[in-house]
Design a protein that fits this description.
The complex is a heterodimer. Chain A has 6 helices and 4 strands. Chain A is an alpha/beta fold. In chain A, helix 1 links the parallel strand 1 and strand 2. Chain A is globular and about 40 Å long. Chain B is of the alpha/beta class. In chain B, helix 1 packs across helix 6 and helix 7 crosses helix 9. The chains are: A alpha/beta, B alpha/beta.
Chain lengths: 137, 243
């Protein structure tokens, strides 16, 4: 992958699910695929920061959303970014009903584990994108 | 006058993921919302200004807001002003720590233990600002503390994603659509306090509407007619089915 994959979490502050996206983004970019991914601050996209817009336009983007409003996805699309992977915490939670997230400032164990599961799913998309690029090279 | 929905202060944190300062904004805002001033504050997710549509942008027009930013880019303050209204107050972590001689926070994902006091101090600063704004008169149109009456109401909204939005009712006034903030809860409170639609519109309803809406000069009579119609319709809806 020539350009790093951009990871955009919603980081919503009203519910635990937003914190799960934030934690998952960090887990992905710091632990699971640190060489291949980079976290994009959504606040900069909201503001229309030119460098941030250019970054999401120039690389594949994976969005992590905490609720159905899909703020991360909507903002990336409005910035002209191409979304290669779109994840919703609620979908992930349905697949992992035992991992109930609680807390916003500090996620509980379930929330941290759910974030890990979300990050793992997103990492698989990263791997696919990298493999596809290698095939086309 | 019926009891009014309490005025609250909106807190918009940048929550920037790139810097520890962004995490400080998030944690300090949450501390105010959950511990220091839970009854006086609400939060607004910054990305909702774009993703949530007009309803969410309207939220910050109604409430005075405090923008809490991590760095000089001031995403929260600038985006709030760009999409909604000028924040009543802004705080920047980078400036705050410099002014108070605090160390720069460390650890975007997990703040270092040494950064905890920064969160606490910033949260206290936000809470102080909340108290100040609650005591002040706020002009929604000017986005500032003013003694003068606000001039123009403009908003359309449902509820914010966090469930703390302001209901807005759209009414017809001489062939155009006008949105009145907080009309439904005002009518509901009036009804619950025993007022009914027989006779002219109770003066206190209009007085309360004026608290939450800046009625343009010369349009008072139109507004009163529209509110009176809404009041009658509301009372009809509340009538027992057997009536």
């Amino acid at each position: 992958m020539s350009a790093k994959i951009m990871i955009v979490p919603c980081s919503g502050i009203g519910k635990s699910y937003g914190s799960v996206t934030r934690e998952a983004a960090y887990a992905l970019a710091e632990e699971l695929r640190p060489e291949k991914t980079s976290v994009v601050p959504l606040s900069l996209l909201v503001l229309g920061d030119e460098m941030t817009r250019a970054a999401v336009q120039a690389a594949p983007v994976i969005t992590l959303d905490g609720c159905k409003l899909a703020c991360a996805t909507v903002n990336v699309r409005q910035a002209g970014g191409v979304i290669a992977g779109q994840f919703a915490v609620l979908d992930c939670y349905r697949r992992h009903k035992d991992l109930k997230p609680q807390g916003i400032a500090e996620l509980n164990e379930g929330g941290l584990a759910l974030a890990r599961a979300l990050a793992t799913e997103a990492a698989e998309v990263c791997d696919r994108l990298i493999a596809e690029e290698a095939d086309h090279a | 006058m019926p009891d009014l929905p309490q005025r609250k202060i909106g807190i918009v944190a940048c929550s920037g993921e790139e810097l520890a300062e962004g995490t400080v904004t998030r944690l300090a805002a949450l501390k105010v919302l959950e511990q220091l001033r839970p009854a006086q504050t609400v939060t607004i997710c910054l990305p909702l200004f774009l993703a949530g549509g007009e309803g969410d942008r309207a939220f910050a027009r109604f409430y005075p807001t405090i923008a809490v930013d991590g760095c000089e880019k001031r995403c929260a303050a600038r985006a709030t002003e760009l999409y909604s209204n000028k924040p009543a107050a802004t705080l920047i972590v980078a400036d705050f720590v410099a002014q108070h001689g605090l160390p720069r926070p460390q650890g975007p994902r997990r703040l270092s233990p040494e950064s905890g006091p920064i969160v606490d101090a910033l949260a206290e600063e936000i809470a102080t600002e909340v108290d100040h704004l609650l005591r002040a008169r706020w002009s929604r149109t000017e986005g500032a503390i003013l003694e003068a009456t606000a001039q123009t109401p403009q908003v359309a909204t449902a509820a914010c994603a966090c469930g703390s939005g302001i209901p807005v009712t759209t009414v017809q006034m001489d062939g155009r659509q006008v949105q009145i903030m907080a009309l439904e809860p005002i009518l509901a409170l009036a009804y619950d306090q025993g007022l009914r639609s027989e006779g002219p519109l109770p003066a206190r309803i209009m007085a309360t509407v004026q608290v939450y809406n800046a009625i343009p000069a010369g349009e008072e009579a139109q507004w009163e007619r529209a509110v009176a119609l809404a009041w009658q319709a509301f009372c009809q809806r509340r009538l027992p089915i057997s009536a």
